[in-house]
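Hi everyone, sorry if this is the wrong subforum. Our group has a chain we'd like a structural model of before ordering constructs, and none of us has done structure prediction before. Sequence below.
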Amino acid sequence: MALDFRKKWFSLKGISWIFVLAFVGYGQFAFATPSTTFYTPCTTYIQPFKVPHITYDSYFNDNTDFPTDVGLTIGLVPWDKFQAEAGIDLFYPSDYPLFFNARIGFPDDALFTNSPGINLGIWGVGTKEDVTDFNILELNVGKSIQNFGSVAVGVYKGLNPDLLEDENGDDHSLGWMVSYYRTLDPLTDRIAVSADYMSGENVFSGGGVGLYFWFTKSIDLILGWVWFENHALNPEDGLFTLQLDVDLDFERFLEKGKDSQAGNF
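Answer:
Right subforum, don't worry. Here is the predicted structure as tokens:
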């Protein structure tokens, strides 16, 4: 069975790929979100109940080093057919590093047989008025298809349009997203390819392509490249990204510990 992806980003995928302020040199932004595919939060995945997800994301090239994102996301409800998560992200160094995000939704097959996953979320909820309070709503629809992978499409709307303008002051607070994720089955389910994109000419608009390397079902390393649509607001050359994700399933860990103490391995 293929491993489930658990990203965050800008982490996107962290979502994160909530988007987070990252002012370095240009006045650029990188973003952290609810669960993500690679660069954007365009996914219907939601973190499992009571399982904390820790992410550590870095973005860099020869000339630019974005602030590092350290994020925590956790599932909030115990149900299979309705799910919810909430999270925080810290970006350092930056003047206002704290951001919040949340998401609710229905996974594949929850509403009816072969129904797609659907979720609604908000990210980029910063703490500084008119500086980091992007407050971006998202609606995603996606489906995992056997032997093809997981695809999703979404729309986003920023509730503070002044922060989502291009360099000319034009509003780019409304747009669309698309994503794709697939393990390399039947060769291996420990490596996956991922790509996603966010439309517009705002500070977040752009896309990315990356590879997941799953060391266990709870730990993965992502290597990839992201690019931006607006080169006046972000680096023209794009950025390399290195992302580490860890799920901390304490209940499962404690159960394993009891088995070990009892001599059951």
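For your construct planning: Confidence is low (pLDDT under 50) at residues 1-29. Residues 250-261 form the longest helix (12 residues).
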